[in-house]
Design brief:
6-stranded antiparallel sheet; alpha/beta; binds flavin-adenine dinucleotide
């Protein structure tokens, strides 16, 4: 081991890579990390963080309108896009410095370069041509936006990466995609005042989420003026002066100032030199790993989006930490990927943990469904036409809550806490035994008495 340059070489200083590097270094490993763009990775530089700040920005418009019902007179507010993007850029730079300092503090050597494999123990830094040998190599290169088939005019299309740097707020934007990034940006742009058209090839947005949530979100988005077009794809994009004319598969066209695709992200393995080491790639395109994040090559590991397990920041961080604990801390640690709570920062916000109703019906012999939809209290005076939606899925045999789906203000915050209960195996009786907090929306979670539906044996009875 001593004749290698470092004990651990990490490729990619994003959520998973930074955590793995600093924890491994904390255990005494000699660690080097390479980053080809900016330290912090997708989450910090062009994902969760700047997006959430944009979400905040996009919500003020409704807040100003709602204030009237509470007696406030707000002068006609105006929005200045360059102020928002400049402030975002400043915050991202601050965070990047914080991440860089952390690496420095733990004695991790940072190489500002792309790194590619030469062989299973050697990487080449493309900036300098220097090679570094390592006992262990961790691939933490994340994911990259996928643009789909090579249609005419694809060069005019932007991804979420570019949205943070647009010189001005597009008056009209077409977004293709139906996943969480597509719907979040649709709501962000609509909230900031853009005219938004969302085009999705499937029958409804948010594939993989609970059907009630998908339907409810679509209605709410449409109520906020977003045009949601399902069952179509973009076939071509023409540039016409400063505008873009997008052709859809039904022959119709939509003219906008920007066209964005958010149709999925692919594991970032292109050009990494994996052919030089022979890591097995799984069918979904991610690097195949075992439960300790080890690839098919004994000394090479992979964590985060590049493994295409659950593509979320906390998961990448947990996998990076578990890797370092396992290899350098003497604590073999597997990451439990079950019941990962997650949020979608749309308007209204979504918080989800556990199974969808369709999944629960397949997995539970007996299933009880509790759901409620109601007008949030704030809307009584603001007059806003919006509904909160809560759903609990309960295993009818064990009484365990196997799924919770929330849509309404702060659903992302709520689901973090509900996630603890679900992870602990809480039953519906535990929810019912918990005293309500009044007056809140969350109290509905512990006062759901009437079953909306029972499946399985109960349905047959
Ligand atoms: C718009 C958007 C919004 C999101 N919102 C959320 C959210 O709200 N909540 C959530 O949990 N997740 C969110 N995500 C997902 C989250 O950002 C990722 O799951 C997370 O960043 C994955 O971490 P990672 O370590 O696997 O990869 P990344 O954070 O992507 O880091 C990979 C790093 O590797 C670098 N790299 C790649 N190849 C090389 C190479 N050969 N040499 C050197 N460096 C290389 C890249 O430049 C990058 O910095 C969002 C993603 C996007 C795009």
């Amino acid at each position: 081991m001593a004749d290698r340059d470092v004990d651990l070489f990490v490729i990619g200083a994003g959520s998973g890579g930074v955590r793995a590097a600093r924890v491994a270094a904390g255990y005494g490993a000699r660690v080097m990390i390479a980053e080809e763009y900016r330290v912090g990775g997708t989450c910090v530089i062009r994902g969760c963080v700047p997006k959430k700040l944009m979400v905040y920005a996009s919500r003020f418009g409704e807040e100003f309108e709602d204030a009237a019902g509470f007696g406030w007179t707000v002068p006609q507010p105006t929005f200045h896009w360059p102020s928002l993007t400049a402030n975002l850029a400043r915050e991202v730079t601050r965070l990047e410095a914080a991440y860089t300092n952390t690496l420095d503090k733990w004695g991790v050597t940072l190489a500002k370069s792309r790194a590619v494999f030469e062989d299973a123990h050697t990487v080449r830094l493309t900036e300098t041509g220097e090679t570094v040998s390592a006992e262990t190599i961790l691939i933490a290169t994340g994911g990259w936006p996928h643009y789909g088939p090579d249609i005419p005019g694809l060069e005019h299309v932007i991804s979420s990466n570019e949205t943070f740097h647009l010189p001005e707020l597009p008056k009209r934007i077409l977004i293709q995609g139906g996943g969480y990034i597509a719907v979040e940006f649709a709501c962000i742009f609509a909230g900031l005042g853009s005219e938004v058209t969302l085009v999705y090839r499937g029958h409804n947005i948010l594939r993989g989420f609970d059907d009630d949530v998908r339907e409810h979100l679509r209605n709410e988005m449409q109520m906020r003026g977003i045009t949601v077009t399902c069952g179509h794809t973009v076939t071509a994009v023409d540039k016409a002066g400063d505008e873009f004319v997008t052709h859809l598969s039904d022959g119709s066209t939509v003219t906008t100032d920007k066209v964005m695709f958010a149709i999925g992200r692919r594991p970032n393995i292109m050009g990494l030199g994996l052919e030089n080491v022979g890591c097995h790639i799984a069918e979904h395109g991610g690097i195949h790993v075992d439960e300790y994040s080890r690839t098919s090559v004994m000394n090479i590991y992979a964590v985060g989006d590049v493994t295409h397990r659950i593509n979320l920041t906390p998961v990448a961080i947990r996998e990076g930490h578990a890797f370092a604990d396992t290899l350098y801390g003497g604590k073999p640690t597997r990451v439990d990927h079950a019941n990962v709570p997650t949020a979608v920062f749309t308007e209204p916000e979504i918080g989800v943990v556990g199974l969808t109703e369709a999944e629960a019906r397949e997995q539970c012999e007996k299933l009880d469904v509790y759901k409620t939809t109601f007008r949030p209290m704030k809307a009584t005076l603001s007059g806003r036409d919006t509904r909160t939606f809560f759903k609990l899925l309960v295993d009818g045999v064990t009484d365990r809550v196997v799924g919770c789906h929330l849509m309404g203000p702060d659903a992302g915050e709520l689901i973090q806490v509900v996630g603890i209960a679900v992870k602990m195996g809480a039953t519906k009786a535990d929810f019912d035994a918990t005293m309500a907090v009044h007056p809140t929306a969350a109290e509905e979670l512990v006062t759901l008495r009437e079953k909306a539906m029972s499946y399985g044996r109960a349905a047959a009875e």
